[in-house]
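agent: user wants the full assembly modeled, not chains individually. Plan: 1) parse entity lines 2) check alphabet per entity 3) run joint structure prediction 4) return tokens. Steps 1-2 passed, three entities, 806 residues total. Proceeding.
--- entities ---
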Amino acid sequence: MYEYNQFDHDFVRNRVREFRAQVERRLDGSLTEDEFKPLRLMNGLYLQLHAYMLRVAVPYGTLNSRQMNQLAYISEKWDKGYGHFTTRQNIQYNWPKLKDVPDILDALADVEMHAIQTSGNCVRNVTADHFAGAAADEIEDPRPTAELLRQWSMDHPEFQFLPRKFKIAITGAPNDRAVTKAHDIGLRMVRNENDEPGYEVIVGGGLGRTPMVGKVARDFLPKADLLPYVEAILQVYNLNGRRDNKFKARIKILVHETGIETLREMIEEVFETQKALHIPPSEEMVKAIEAQFQPPEFDAGPVDEEKLAAAIESDPLFKSFMETNVHEHFDPNHAIVTISLKPIGGTPGDATADQMRVMANLAEAYAYDELRVSHEQNIILPHVRRDDLPEVFERLREAGLATANVGLITDMIACPGMDYCALATARSIPVAQEISNAFEDIKAQHDIGPLKIKISGCINACGHHHVGHIGILGLDKAGVESYQITLGGDGTETATIGERAGPGFSYEEIVPAIQRIVERYVEIREGVDETFLETYRRVGAEPFKNALYPETV
Amino acid sequence: MARAFTPKVVTANDLLEGDVIYMTGDGNWTRDHAEAKLFEDEDEAKAALAKAETQSLKLVGAYLADAVRGEDGKPEPVHFREAFRTRGPSNYPELGKQAEL
Amino acid sequence: MSIIVRDDGFHKDSWEADGGLFIDLEKFGQDVASKAPDKTALDIPNDVSAHSLTGLFNNVAMIRIPFPSFADGRGFSIAKQLRQIGYEGRLRAFGHVIADQYGFARTCGFDEVEISEELAERQPQEQWLARLPKDNLSYQKKLLAEREMRNA
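--- prediction returned ---
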């Protein structure tokens, strides 16, 4: 794991001091609210529906137990004893007081964490594959690149006041778990015909009001050219992105209106200048970062497979857990465990302080002190010895954290919606809770198979509804909550924007509507191995529309 | 044709605490919607909002929200968003203002 | 009367008092012959291409870039580009720049910032001097320093 050097420490502390002074200057009138707002946002602080909200970065989703314990401590000392893990590998506290925030930021700095650029019209927290450094299908660990980008983007003098926010995601595996095609820049680590490492660079993806799948700007960018190339994209965007309309200000609109060919030329032109001036970081510096992401020294002792097999045999819940929550590790003695933060009827992504401590303790005892936050609002123990899995499961079960539903219908993404968010037009959390209750039977869930439901409480699409196999968008229709369904979305390497199924449903009607879709799928699938998405792609939307709107058939 | 004016309360968030607040009849602020002053005259409502907007060291984001007089004579929110603001998140009934109701 | 912020604090703007002129880019062609370059400042809009200005570098002593709002960061990129393509004259940011941005402005190549008296009163000198580029911890500078060390 990356450890701060003296510069990183000084930088983050200095930033806390600056923010402390900014709060004081807001209170003494030096800064108007209009001026203060972007500054607090750049430090992760929102003013939401009921209270302030602090969004803390978990860069590229990687945490150790000390950091997770500190997140628990902060939630109890300055908040209400829980936190909300988000789709961008952040954790949000929903109840901080303005005057406490500088102290919270200091407490984060104590464990090498921060809230810098988790909001605002700047380069946001760089996200990465949550299985990075552990996945069996990985070509290369994307986190050293993500860390380099974190450093480059921190307080970048030219790019703090962009037309709009700017999100970068990176994956080092062919199976895209980082939704790279729905980011302002998506980076996929690839190798060229000479086996040299580099990136495929995708620009202009995004969800929100105008969902777009990103387009390839460069199919191979040599690794050493990354910073000047990203700098070129940002400069072209800063100068040319629209500032007349907030809803047209993301780079995806620039790509759309300018055309990828023209934009590519504009980027290349700036890139030539940047490359001449901006010699990339030295190999030593890159190597020094990479060295910090070396995998731990894995316990190579033989795995007690009999013990594992016996545990699977004797406990059907553990068997289910093994099927959904445990994934293949590149080291055959180890496995990746996903801890579901989607208990039946619970709030997706929430964890109490006690649960955070349990996860921290498990990481320390069984996972070489590493944890990950996934964009699917779950927590990962990236390296667990296979014969430790029964104990890990047992301890998760005691803490209410062993729900065996990863990738299944109740493993939903939901934004905070109108229960917290000032921008929301409808609630999302209670819809997720009721869907979860409706499909609570784990065996039935396993029978339905992989199905991603994603729920957003407004058009900004923080709940990624466009790329949900079933997407739900909550709107305010003449003063009443109304939910629109989209079908067939996909956030992986085969990214697709879902299609709107038809008129919206009321709060009371939305859960039965989802049930009708699922029932129809189970009726028409060609065997239990055909997933919802496969069925949808085979038959199209019609059968599901008929199920949704029977009166019109 | 201009739309007919409907009664309003002046609401905002407290600068230091972040809490939802409402203007009372004496120009102070309360956290309880029922204690808010219901403005039934458009000019009075606008004047009250203008006054709130000068209090930038006390509050953030003042606006007029629709409300009606309830059976007990106290103002009640009209839109569901405003109703949530009087209570707190629906997933945790023990948190937010509803904890004290 | 505008206030000019530099690394040594606030100053009254003496450019026009000393006989200097501000000329809009679009009028520049007509007026250029009548003025000595050392008395000429060019006002450019913040949506102009820096590359289109290279022919004028020797005809002006100052280029002034507007900030209609502190949230509009185009001026930072234009300044950076002007420096990258070799403009060495005086570079001034003009309008709604706040003290918190002073370090960014300087790092992108501005020499000074011109602000209103109202803003200068609300954000006095010490708030700007707290953001001197030399005191600023910056990853950008660190990356740059590392490069220079290697080139030396």
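agent: reporting back. The mean pLDDT of chain A is 95. Chain A has four domains: 6-110, 142-290, 317-398, 413-552.
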